[in-house]
């Protein structure tokens, strides 16, 4: 999808890119860094984004009703996806099925097969979005690519998000012990099963691709007509709910905001690349490195990465603060849009997430 310029309705003289920088000449550059031919423009275009500005048909009825209907659809679609995912893995793990397929005793192979089947489900039910043919959706190609500095900043932010998750996990773990409970995080469960070749292939490659197709390619694309910021935030929230984990939910929500912006303003291809980089390098890669070291050395490496992520991440956010604020202001949702979060589909998804999160705690 091309990055669309937002034209000032009052003057029609100057275009402002969605990253919040006005441009007097050509050239492409990361939206987070000031180009020498760009000047920062304050919120001249701060009226709420509506379907007329973002494209797409949004149906009939009041604005809040139309938004709630759209959120309801995406919430139920995410629920169906989750139910199907669990059903597939349940069937594949049945002893008779595992023996028939030859997957018994092969770590991660059933998970990899399930991701392929989930991709086929997305393709069968949301063909236009998955193939990038939806006219007002999120495509795989863009006239602009993110600059090197932007990609470096995005990578640092992913480390920052991971550092926050690590710190939050430690707090929850200590709080659980104080209450006589044991907390089993999703991250710890994944690390315990990363053996052979299929498990890393699943978590580092297949999962990021399928998740991006679902959350950014389908959910965010279908919510885009109701405002870019609204679509990014809502799809990130659904992304977090689908993980059903308190600490990882915080991480995935923040990651979803970043990947949503990247997919919206550049292309789905770049959000997939960043998601794969996060899972392959920052998750599996760091895990393999620390496991190869002695426990004290591995702990020291983890602490260094966490401290670097916190400090460098705050620096990036400080540098990006003005274009981020301008982007949100330029593409802010119309009044009443977030009432759409009261949709039954999303409420049920939240309840399922809370139940799943609660099940991660058990008596010591």
From TrEMBL:
The keyword Hydrolase applies. This is CAAX amino terminal protease. Residues 1-61 are annotated as: Disordered. GO terms for molecular function: endopeptidase activity. It comes from the Bacteria. Residues 197-281 form the CAAX prenyl protease 2/Lysostaphin resistance protein A-like domain. Residues 1-17, 42-52 have a biased composition (Basic and acidic residues). The keyword Transmembrane applies.
